[in-house]
User: Which sequence fits this backbone?
């Protein structure tokens, strides 16, 4: 409602675009909506405390639905008029004459819009009268309800500035609480060589911790198997999708995917180990006649691949015994050994193929009181809570020993530090008034699914209104999918859910909202970027189930396919998420009213897209990331969406953008990464509101060429992110882009052009004094990055810096980058003297030395040899400095002996090395906080020496307390 009121205000200021006299109707609607917004906000506050008057129930919900519907219709009307009527500038030449002609030409559309506004005013009046007629009274204030909502965060509003979180960290796998007895026995099952194959069934109630136990086993023992994969099944019966997902995780990667970029390494390391892969929708045709053929081919591919290799597969949340039977028949036995872990809520799944050799069933039960308290406090402190002693034990005891309820409640308590012990006791009583007894283990009654939902619902309702809206947006993504932080926050911004406040940019506010959802335990981080911030997250299926139900109830999002069995909406569809492309769902969208869709997200094949049903004029968000079946006519249809703000064609078959893209004057984000688009048309310079241009391919370093008009006409001054671009001679002058926060240059084509070098260097210096925080330069010739040392005023406020090329000496000004937290350099800069220089960067969180060249050219190999000689045959990490470094990565064909001095890198948690030959690794025992050493061998010829190094490291890092870092070897 906040966004539509802003638009109404804008329309009120532009009455000249409409028929005279409509201003009064607009003002009435604006005032009525303001009153409705205040009413709903009061109602939300009462509801959050559990004190809403139950007598209103259905009447209140119906009235709220009417408010939402008219709000959407008003916004549609405003947006529709925006691209039909444009008004004229009052300072233009011959304004009165031109305006007279304009009014004649636009008489009919202006009359049509004015008539719609009149109807909307009448509807607003009727909604107000209907509320009084049917006795939907104003909600009672705190005096008329119990006290749990006292001091509630939605009443005071959310202070984004005070809730900023600047901490950086890595995702680490914590030992599950209260499942030690499970883990010991299950670990023996995994490592038992007597059985060549076997299936472990982890059975238990939703939220009891099945997935936590299974993931812990998978992570701990995954490196003992040649191949591993994790998939989420849920209520889906699409066997092809499940097997395709497994195949994609275990089959050899293409050469382009094996690029040795720094982030590419981390992506491969995290594959299948840190989170669940997204549910893979079957692409291409949905004809049933091809189903068997595809299934047979998948079975054949997996059999050939698994035949002589050991494998570990985790299949999460299986609902159907029939589905599981089909999956198991499709997974072939191995001549080595195989382990399959299945989590399910239903005992029938575990007894589908009873008595087979090597199979084992483990029933997971709720935690005891002591274990519940331990888990609550752990989650409480993770959410940055304090004064846990003031929280009564009834808070975690009422959760019945279910980890999901305990963790969610801990996040809720941590985010409400001002509540007293008495208020928390009232919360417990309001949630479970029917019983004063405890729930769960130790003689207590187990919670029902409805009671768990009650706790989740209370924690959801407690959130600030803006963040609650953002959380509803999570229902767009399929169950089990890892959700990209930036993809999510950019879409929030495009939808108008986030605005600048308290001196923070809209991106900073969105990041604060995201971090608050993590604190609340609504989402869980599963992957961090090398800059220490959360890169991807997931939502627990029971939390997501509640969010999807809420989004459906409020007609916020309509989900078709996927894991949810939802009834088709009875009203207009506003936001649509198509999550499946099989024949069963093919006709679902045909029955819907799609003329008001303003946000469309697709997963799978574009063959499902009912394009003829859309009113292209009001679509504002179009996300087709990863979709197959993209055709030329799709780009033509996209260019008709004149109000589009967010467009993602990432990983589609897009080859070229048409000139008509220049018509999308409201576009703010254009994401064409990992497509075949290598050049933008000239008309893109007409997009003055464009904030983010995301192009190129990070792994292959394919770059996106910008039009020359960008410089000639000094266009697109609103740009904040310019990523994956190619710089050629005439495009090196970027001085006018003063809002730029990130500049990523994947290709420099200015060899021998000194003027271009000076323009680009001067631009970087100039922009560094404004907003530039992240700089990436890939200079194959290395001429430009070698000239960076001559900068008179370097960008001192950089947070992230990446320099790729054959550089040896570092720019002298690098030690002045006091805010730098992420640094990536070419491996040619790996020298003892450079490490000594970099050790003075106190904010540095991650340091990477990478090798990006496709071939091992003689010049690079010579530099590496010279670096080794200059450092007396080994690279030594100094014994002081690197005060904040937690991640250190090396990637090179030949790595010399790496030696860590005593007290070196006191905070280092993760050490990653990728190589064909590693000469040695010394002093690892000096890394006091080290948790993981990950060795990745690219060449079998170096296997013997690598295993010898592995044994030496394992022997060196053994600690008396038994907490030695984990050594992982991937070949």
Assistant:
């Amino acid at each position: 409602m906040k966004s539509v009121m802003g638009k109404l205000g804008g329309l009120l200021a532009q009455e000249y675009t409409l028929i005279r006299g409509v201003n009064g109707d607009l003002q009435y609607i604006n005032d009525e909506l303001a009153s409705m917004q205040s009413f709903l906000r009061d109602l939300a506050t009462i509801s959050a405390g559990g004190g809403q008057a139950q007598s209103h129930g259905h009447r209140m919900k119906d009235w709220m639905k009417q408010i939402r519907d008219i709000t959407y219709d008003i916004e549609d009307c405003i947006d529709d008029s925006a691209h039909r009527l444009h008004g004229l500038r009052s300072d233009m030449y011959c304004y009165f004459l031109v305006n007279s002609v304009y009014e004649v030409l636009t008489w009919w559309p202006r009359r049509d819009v004015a008539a719609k506004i009149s109807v909307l005013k009448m509807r607003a009046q009727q909604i107000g009268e209907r509320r009084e007629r049917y006795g939907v009274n104003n909600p009672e204030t705190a005096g008329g309800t119990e006290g749990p909502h006292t001091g509630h965060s939605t009443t005071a509003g959310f202070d984004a500035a005070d809730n900023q979180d600047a901490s950086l960290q890595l995702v680490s796998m914590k030992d599950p609480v209260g499942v030690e007895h499970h883990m010991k026995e299950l670990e023996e099952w995994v490592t038992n060589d007597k059985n060549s194959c076997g299936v472990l069934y982890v059975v238990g109630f939703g939220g009891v911790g099945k997935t936590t136990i299974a993931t812990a086993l998978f992570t701990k023992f995954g490196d003992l198997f040649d191949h591993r994969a994790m998939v989420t099944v849920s209520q889906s019966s699409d066997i092809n999708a499940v097997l395709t997902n497994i195949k994609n995780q275990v089959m050899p990667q293409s050469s382009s995917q094996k690029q040795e970029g720094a982030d590419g390494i981390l992506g491969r390391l995290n594959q299948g180990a840190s989170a669940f892969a997204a549910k893979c929708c079957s692409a291409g045709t949905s004809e049933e006649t091809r189903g068997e053929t595809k299934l047979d081919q998948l079975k054949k591919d997996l059999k050939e691949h698994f035949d002589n290799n050991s494998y570990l597969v985790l299949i999460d949340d299986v609902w159907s015994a029939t589905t599981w039977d089909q999956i198991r028949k499709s997974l072939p036995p191995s001549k080595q050994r195989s382990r399959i872990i299945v989590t399910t809520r239903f005992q029938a799944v575990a007894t589908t193929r009873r008595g087979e050799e090597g199979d084992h069933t483990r029933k997971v039960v709720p935690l005891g009181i002591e274990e519940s308290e331990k888990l609550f406090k752990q989650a409480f402190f993770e959410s940055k809570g304090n004064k846990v002693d003031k929280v009564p034990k009834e808070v975690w005891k009422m959760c019945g020993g279910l980890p999901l309820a305990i963790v969610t409640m801990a996040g809720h308590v941590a985010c409400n530090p001002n509540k007293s012990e008495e208020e928390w006791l009232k919360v417990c009583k309001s949630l479970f008034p029917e019983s004063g007894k405890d729930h769960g283990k130790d003689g207590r009654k187990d919670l029902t699914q409805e009671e768990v939902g009650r706790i989740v619902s209370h924690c959801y309702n407690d959130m600030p209104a803006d963040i609650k809206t953002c959380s509803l947006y999570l229902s767009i993504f399929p169950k089990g999918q890892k959700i990209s932080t930036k993809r999510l926050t950019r879409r929030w911004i495009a939808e108008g859910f986030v605005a600048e406040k308290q001196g923070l940019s809209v991106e900073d506010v969105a990041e604060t909202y995201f971090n608050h959802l993590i604190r609340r335990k609504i989402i869980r981080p599963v992957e961090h970027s090398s800059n220490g911030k959360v890169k991807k997250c997931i939502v627990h299926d029971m939390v997501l189930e509640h969010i999807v139900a809420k989004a459906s109830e409020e007609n916020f999002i309509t989900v078709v396919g996927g894991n949810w069995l939802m009834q088709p909406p009875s009203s207009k569809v506003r936001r649509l998420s198509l999550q499946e492309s099989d024949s069963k769902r093919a006709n679902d969208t045909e029955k819907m009213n799609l003329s008001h869709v303003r946000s469309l997200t697709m997963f799978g094949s574009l063959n499902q897209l009912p394009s003829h049903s859309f009113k292209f004029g009001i679509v504002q968000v179009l996300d087709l990331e990863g979709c197959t079946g993209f055709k030329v006519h799709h780009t033509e249809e996209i260019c008709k969406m004149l109000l589009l703000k967010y467009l993602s064609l990432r990983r589609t078959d897009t080859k070229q953008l048409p000139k008509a893209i220049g018509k999308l004057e409201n576009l703010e984000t254009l994401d064409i990464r990992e497509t075949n688009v290598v050049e933008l048309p000239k008309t893109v310079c007409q997009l003055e509101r464009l904030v983010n241009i995301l192009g190129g391919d990070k792994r292959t370093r394919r770059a996106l060429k910008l039009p020359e008009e960008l410089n000639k006409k000094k266009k697109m001054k609103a740009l904040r992110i310019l990523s994956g671009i190619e710089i050629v001679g005439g495009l090196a002058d970027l001085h006018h882009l003063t809002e730029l926060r990130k500049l990523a240059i994947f290709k420099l084509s200015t060899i021998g052009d000194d003027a271009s070098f000076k323009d680009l260097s001067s631009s970087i210096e100039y922009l560094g004094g404004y907003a530039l925080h992240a700089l990436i330069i890939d200079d194959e010739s290395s001429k430009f990055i070698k000239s960076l040392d001559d900068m008179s005023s370097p960008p001192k406020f950089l947070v992230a810096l990446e320099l790729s090329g054959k550089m040896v000496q570092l720019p002298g000004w690098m030690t002045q980058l006091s805010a730098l937290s992420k640094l990536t350099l070419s491996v040619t800069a790996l020298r003892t003297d450079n490490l000594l220089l970099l050790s003075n960067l106190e904010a540095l969180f991650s340091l990477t030395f990478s090798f990006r060249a496709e071939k091992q050219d003689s010049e690079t190999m010579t530099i590496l040899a010279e670096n080794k000689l200059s450092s007396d045959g080994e690279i030594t990490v100094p014994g002081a400095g690197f005060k904040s470094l937690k991640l250190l990565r090396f990637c090179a064909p030949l790595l010399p002996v790496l030696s860590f001095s005593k007290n070196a890198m006191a905070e280092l948690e993760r050490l990653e090395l990728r190589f064909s030959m590693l000469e040695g690794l010394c002093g690892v025992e000096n890394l006091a906080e080290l948790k993981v050493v990950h060795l990745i061998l690219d060449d079998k010829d170096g296997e013997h020496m690598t295993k010898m190094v592995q044994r030496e490291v394992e022997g060196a890092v053994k600690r008396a307390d038994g907490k030695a870092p984990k050594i992982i070897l991937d070949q």
The radius of gyration is 30 Å. The chain has 29 helices and 31 strands. Residues 50-56, 141-156, 253-291 have pLDDT under 50 and may be disordered. The longest strand covers residues 227-234.
